């Protein structure tokens, strides 16, 4: 439930449809999203077994952070390539890179090799995550876009329901490597459905948003590298640790200026606070997802199947929360968004805290389920409401840019949370203490979502 955030700022232009849209294109898009979503949900479940088999607990956090940070840059790169060479070329590249990453991860002889495979996967997944929005906005008529967006979004539901459980069964009966290998044939079969209908390029001038995607290409790469330096510095026990952290923090501060509005880290009222809320909420809930299965396995003796069931429960609840949010939006309208966003973040704070107490031992194990349901329900209601609140405050012509900012802050903060949690697991002994500190960090992130919620504002009419 964390890595589906890998969509970043990519061209979402407005253009007339010049050729009829084959039905196979829609099917191909949905299949690609299903594959990426399944891989995303599966990795969190099998990662404890990967780390055990490859003796790679020291690089545990990097398995998620490498994917996320590379996906941030991969989405922007795919958008620029699609603008210059066409969507067919960018799609071929994204699919090929993602498949190569699956192969490298599945064949990895060490945890370093596995992290490399995840980094390659992220580059491809970033482009694949941005692909539906670029295709739908350029190849589908206005009346069909809402239906296709709903279909693409719904493609995440099935992997959220069964992905962790299927992955845990495959890992238990065969090998965790089969989780990665098994996706490659499906990817190969679905690729022509996407690529062939996109071979004809649209003749139109580049939009302002596409030009923006070129402008942020190098800042996006810089942000990924700088955040990676922070994560590696926190993980290392040697003399390079603090120089890396300080240099990385300086790099994040510098590159963020080109990607996000001023006042983001100060929680300035309005749009910066909405972006900060999204980032810290992702940090708290999706960041917890990256180490929750390992904590349940190591501290509570839960099997990977049991840990996968907890993640599946969270995915279902998040979807339910999104449905509840939609019903509240229909019934009470835009005026209720502020209250929904703040109320959802209260659920996140309480839910993450209960989850932590249930995993660490002060409360019974069943409290983990209650806490995780509450936190994911809060995300379903509050996360989407906050996004709608932010988008409604955007000036005309800036909606696409803001959508990219919402995605980028999410990816960045989840990657940092995974890196911090992984660094604690690598450096702190015993594991009980490491997980206690990791949960303390994500609970703090949850509290900051509440603080950001107090700085939100309804857009002025």
TrEMBL record:
<feature type="transmembrane region" description="Helical">
    <location>
        <begin position="148"/>
        <end position="172"/>
    </location>
</feature>
<dbReference type="InterPro" id="IPR011701">
    <property type="entry name" value="MFS"/>
</dbReference>
<feature type="transmembrane region" description="Helical">
    <location>
        <begin position="302"/>
        <end position="324"/>
    </location>
</feature>
<feature type="domain" description="Major facilitator superfamily (MFS) profile">
    <location>
        <begin position="25"/>
        <end position="457"/>
    </location>
</feature>
<feature type="transmembrane region" description="Helical">
    <location>
        <begin position="59"/>
        <end position="80"/>
    </location>
</feature>
<feature type="transmembrane region" description="Helical">
    <location>
        <begin position="240"/>
        <end position="260"/>
    </location>
</feature>
<feature type="transmembrane region" description="Helical">
    <location>
        <begin position="216"/>
        <end position="234"/>
    </location>
</feature>
<feature type="transmembrane region" description="Helical">
    <location>
        <begin position="272"/>
        <end position="296"/>
    </location>
</feature>
<keyword id="KW-0472">Membrane</keyword>
<feature type="transmembrane region" description="Helical">
    <location>
        <begin position="178"/>
        <end position="196"/>
    </location>
</feature>
<feature type="transmembrane region" description="Helical">
    <location>
        <begin position="114"/>
        <end position="136"/>
    </location>
</feature>
<keyword id="KW-0812">Transmembrane</keyword>
<feature type="transmembrane region" description="Helical">
    <location>
        <begin position="372"/>
        <end position="394"/>
    </location>
</feature>
<feature type="transmembrane region" description="Helical">
    <location>
        <begin position="25"/>
        <end position="47"/>
    </location>
</feature>
<feature type="transmembrane region" description="Helical">
    <location>
        <begin position="87"/>
        <end position="108"/>
    </location>
</feature>
<dbReference type="Pfam" id="PF07690">
    <property type="entry name" value="MFS_1"/>
</dbReference>
<feature type="transmembrane region" description="Helical">
    <location>
        <begin position="345"/>
        <end position="366"/>
    </location>
</feature>
<dbReference type="InterPro" id="IPR020846">
    <property type="entry name" value="MFS_dom"/>
</dbReference>
<feature type="transmembrane region" description="Helical">
    <location>
        <begin position="434"/>
        <end position="453"/>
    </location>
</feature>
<dbReference type="InterPro" id="IPR036259">
    <property type="entry name" value="MFS_trans_sf"/>
</dbReference>
<protein>
    <submittedName>
        <fullName>MFS transporter</fullName>
    </submittedName>
</protein>
<feature type="transmembrane region" description="Helical">
    <location>
        <begin position="406"/>
        <end position="428"/>
    </location>
</feature>
<keyword id="KW-1133">Transmembrane helix</keyword>
């Amino acid at each position: 439930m964390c890595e589906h955030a890998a969509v970043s700022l990519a061209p979402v232009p407005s253009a007339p449809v010049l050729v009829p849209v084959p039905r196979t294109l829609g099917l191909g898009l949905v299949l690609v999203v299903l594959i990426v979503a399944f891989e995303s949900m599966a990795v969190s479940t099998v990662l404890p077994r990967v780390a055990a088999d490859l003796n790679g607990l020291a690089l545990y956090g990097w398995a998620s952070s490498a994917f996320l940070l590379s996906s941030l840059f991969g989405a922007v790169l795919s958008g620029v390539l699609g603008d210059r060479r066409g969507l067919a070329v960018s799609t071929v590249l994204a699919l090929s890179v993602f498949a190569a990453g699956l192969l490298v991860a599945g064949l990895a002889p060490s945890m370093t090799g596995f992290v490399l495979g995840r980094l390659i996967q992220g580059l491809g997944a970033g482009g694949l995550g941005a692909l539906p929005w670029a295709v739908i906005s350029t190849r589908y008529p206005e009346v069909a876009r809402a239906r296709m967006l709903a279909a693409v979004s719904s493609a995440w539901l099935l992997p959220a329901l069964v992905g962790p459980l299927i992955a845990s069964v495959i890992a238990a009966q065969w090998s965790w490597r089969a989780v990665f290998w098994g996706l490659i044939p499906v990817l190969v079969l679905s690729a022509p459905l996407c690529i062939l209908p996109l071979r004809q390029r649209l003749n139109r001038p580049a939009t302002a948003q596409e030009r923006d995607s070129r402008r942020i290409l190098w800042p996006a790469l810089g942000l990924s590298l700088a955040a990676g330096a922070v994560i590696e510095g926190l993980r290392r026990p040697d003399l390079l640790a603090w120089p890396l952290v300080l240099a990385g923090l300086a790099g994040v501060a510098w590159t963020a200026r080109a990607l996000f509005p001023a006042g983001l880290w100060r929680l300035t009222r309005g749009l910066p606070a909405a972006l900060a809320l999204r980032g810290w909420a992702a940090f708290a809930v999706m960041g917890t997802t990256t180490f929750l299965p390992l904590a349940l396995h190591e501290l509570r003796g839960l099997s990977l199947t049991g840990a996968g069931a907890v993640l599946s429960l969270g995915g279902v609840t998040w979807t339910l929360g999104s449905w509840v949010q939609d019903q509240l939006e229909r019934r009470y309208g835009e005026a209720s968004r502020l209250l929904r966003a703040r109320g959802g973040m209260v659920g996140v704070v309480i839910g993450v805290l209960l989850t932590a107490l249930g995993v660490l031992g002060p409360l019974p194990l069943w409290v983990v389920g209650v806490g995780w349901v509450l936190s994911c329900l809060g995300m379903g209601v509050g996360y989407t409401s906050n996004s709608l609140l932010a988008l409604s405050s955007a000036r005309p012509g800036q909606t696409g840019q803001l959508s990219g900012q919402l995605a980028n802050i999410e990816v960045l903060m989840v990657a940092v949370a995974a890196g911090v949690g992984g660094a604690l697991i690598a450096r702190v002994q015993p594991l009980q203490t490491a997980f206690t500190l990791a949960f303390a960090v994500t609970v703090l992130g949850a509290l900051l979502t509440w603080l950001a919620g107090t700085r939100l504002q309804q857009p002025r009419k």
